[in-house]
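Write out this protein's structure.
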Amino acid sequence: MRRRSKQEKKAGQRRTVDVKRFVITYLLLMGGFFFLIGFKPIQDVIDLNGLYTGVIVFLTSKILYLVNIKTSIEGSIIRLPSIALDVKFGCNGLEAVMIYSVAVIAFPASVRTKLTGIIAGFFVIQAINVIRIAGLAYSGVYYKELFKVIHIYVAQGVMIAVALGMFLIYLNYAEKSGKNLA
């Protein structure tokens, strides 16, 4: 059995430290973001979740109009002919964007690579999210018996999978960007 050199041992230790650093940074940043969104005095100044939800509800309403489903919106609520959807935190896609963006920020890469990753990931995640909410609305109108199952088991899993998938794509992009700089 071959013995590992000092350089190989250091590289292995560095990877371990990097994973620890990533996890600690991720947890601290995620806590910070949840604090910014959930802390009442900050919400009184700027309600990021409310603003974000308003845009998502508006865009979803426009998508539903394109598929001939009439809607009206009132705050975070999308009213449809036979159902009303209240788009809240966790349903608006902000949580998925936070999960993804914090992972990108915590992962070691250049600022430019991180910004590119966050911007691209944001748009992909939100495009899929708006389509997801429109699909839920469609199922609520035409497949009421399946709505609850789709909402709880399928739609939530889709957003988690999209955030994870985008991060895996970002890791590949960041690795290639790092090699181009070297």
